[in-house]
Design goal:
Blueprint: H1 6-13, H2 20-23, H3 29-32, E1 45-50, H4 58-67, E2 73-78, H5 82-86, H6 89-103, E3 117-124, E4 127-134, E5 143-149, E6 156-157, E7 165-170, E8 175-181, E9 186-201, E10 214-222, E11 228-229, E12 243-248, E13 280-293, E14 298-304, E15 324-329, E16 336-342
Parallel strand pairs: 1-2, 2-3
Antiparallel strand pairs: 3-4, 5-6, 5-16, 7-15, 8-14, 9-13, 9-15, 9-16, 10-11, 10-12, 10-14
Length: 344
């Protein structure tokens, strides 16, 4: 509808936009009709995919670039402020050359010969480690590496513990940390995934049994002295982490057609509540990122019951959280963080 009253809008859509989620909590035909058919895009594309827009535009930008069937497509990645990057001389020059190429048939700039992926690898908020060009995204030479959750002191390791273990934290401001110190310079560029076996447990035997969990995930970087390293984030924040993710455990069913080993995609069409004592695996996507870790620096995995890096007004609800969250790992529970290591 281009023109019309508010009442016309309600009659056409069924309700006002702020009530859509309440009226359509699952991914039903209402939402499917509104989803862009990215695989039908064939025109030339120059996509900005900002690593600093986690929780907002980051994932959608990469999804559009990956799914489009355009013969000619490029992606420009960065982790600076998005408007600062957009108005930079580099981006203005690239945009002009793209437009000249496809609107004026002027190929003298050599734009057509430019590799499709401009990759910006960050070390911290105000330090770019490297800018280079790649031929594909995700990068085909990526070595996806599993870092398994281990016991106290909580850590991550390339080897899985032999015995079954668990970590418990309260759902009221509760969280747990796992860390991995790098013994060599390492670049992590691409998608991360957390696979973890979980259980919702009541605080006391007589308490109502919780049947769902909202889990908030973040990957933090610590420097060689153990201090947190910050990055640019969405809506102007400059205290973001390497990457983040979120999952409601009752929505854990994966879409087998969309998911890969390194990028799980929830189907969104079902709700699978937890039974008392039930332990289930959950695969959680983390937003794409590109970060350099020097030898002696640390990757810190944070798993929490509430938002780790709040980015208002884009908030996620933890209202379903009650009692305790239990993470199971080791032995028969293959809980791990999958990281995209790029050979240096």
């Amino acid at each position: 509808m281009i023109n019309g009253t508010q009442e016309d809008f309600k009659n056409f859509e069924g309700c006002i936009a702020t009530d859509w989620l309440k009226e359509h909590p699952l991914y039903d035909d209402f939402w499917k009709a509104k989803a862009a058919k990215l695989e039908e895009i064939t025109i030339p594309m120059l996509v900005c995919a900002s690593f600093s827009d986690h929780g907002l535009h980051t994932m959608g930008s990469f999804r559009a670039f990956e799914k489009a069937k355009s013969k000619h497509k490029w992606v420009y990645t960065h982790r600076t402020g998005k408007w600062l990057s957009y108005y930079s001389q580099e981006v203005q020059k690239m945009t002009k050359e793209f437009m000249d190429c496809f609107l004026k048939d002027d190929t003298t700039s050599g734009f057509l010969e430019m590799p499709p992926v401009r990759l910006e690898v960050s070390s911290k908020l105000d330090e770019i480690h490297e800018v280079r060009y790649e031929n594909d995204w995700p990068i085909s030479r990526t070595q996806y590496t599993k870092l398994y959750l281990r016991e106290q002191p909580n850590s991550l390791s390339i080897e899985k513990p032999d015995r079954n273990l668990e970590v418990v934290y309260p759902t009221k401001k509760g969280k747990t940390l796992f860390s991995f110190k790098f013994s060599e310079d390492t670049e992590l560029s691409g998608y991360m995934k957390l696979r973890v076996w979980v259980e919702a447990r009541a605080c006391k035997e007589e308490d109502p049994k919780p049947n769902d969990m909202a889990m908030f995930i973040a990957v933090n970087k610590l420097d060689q002295d153990g201090n947190s390293v910050r990055f640019n984030g969405s809506v102007g924040i400059n205290g973001d982490m390497v990457t983040r993710g979120w999952c409601k455990v009752s929505r854990r069913e994966l879409d087998p057609d969309e998911s890969t080993e390194w990028h799980p995609v929830q189907k969104g069409t079902s709700e699978q509540k937890l039974k008392a004592g039930e332990i289930v695996p959950v695969d959680i996507e983390l937003y794409p990122s590109s970060t350099f870790f020097a030898v002696g620096e640390t990757l810190q995995l944070i798993i929490a019951a509430d938002e780790i890096v709040p980015s208002p007004p884009y908030r996620k609800s933890a209202a379903c959280n009650h009692g305790m969250h239990v993470l199971h790992f080791g032995g028969r529970y293959d809980s791990y963080l999958l990281v995209p290591k790029i050979p240096l």
